[in-house]
Amino acid sequence: MAEVEWTEIKEPQDIKLVVADMDATLLDADGQIPAGFWPMLDRLNQKGVTFVPASGRQYQTLQQMFSRSVRPMSFIAENGNIVSLDGNVIETHTVSRDLVKQVIDICDKAAETGEYNIGLVVCGLNAAYIQRTDEEFIAEVSKYYAKVEPVNNLREVLDYVDEKFLKLAIFDFEPAEPMAKDLLAGIEQPYEYVLSGKHWADIMDSRVSKGDGVVVLQKALGVGVDETAVFGDYLNDVPMFEHARYSFAVANAHPQVRAAAAYIAPANTEEGVIRVVDRIVR
């Protein structure tokens, strides 16, 4: 798809749903919510437009980050495995305990050999479970998971009968793509791995994506594709694009994401999401 700048949209549009990825899309260079976001959210609320952060982050983390909102917000969390509307979870997707065990075994073996400097997060509905507890790893996990529970051995969580497992997330201190191709090639359907960032690989149900979260919200809100705008920067954001007439890759996005989007927005460091929304929402 030929790249088209956001400024080619000359008139405000009848947008009812705006969905934006977080890291390197909505958030600034320091990973913070830009100051201009809150006035924009107020304007959208007044117009009856729903704004939805979409992220690989934990649901509890998103709730914490956006706790300043005067109204309950809607979220697409854990890369589409949790969808909430106005503060209520309306959709969840899980993975099997057999998959959890398989990935724990893979990561333990890699750690024993020293082949990769990685850490595993078992993402449950109630908490995120980790075994590795060094400061460097904890610092990375804490960026995305507000409710973290360290355990002596991750296999313990397999006995948590009341827990539902949403996905597994592997952090690599080096770029994650080579590690994922090497260690996770044996993951079988209906599961797959997706690169959710430069250093993160998620193992989850292959039938679930952020795009599915967009569809769930569209149905719940009675909103169509022509009334939806989405923003992203990385490969796990692309599934959202086919469900929105107005799909935007921020200027700093991965080349494949830029190619898939209908329009190019300013970079996250230039408050691209806010500038575009203020221009196109009627």
From TrEMBL:
GO terms for molecular function: magnesium ion binding; phosphatase activity. One of its GO terms (cellular component) is cytosol. InterPro entries: Cof (IPR000150), HAD-like_sf (IPR036412), HAD-SF_hydro_IIB (IPR006379), HAD_sf (IPR023214). Pfam families: Hydrolase_3. Keywords: Hydrolase. This is Hydrolase (HAD superfamily). It comes from Bifidobacterium animalis subsp. lactis.
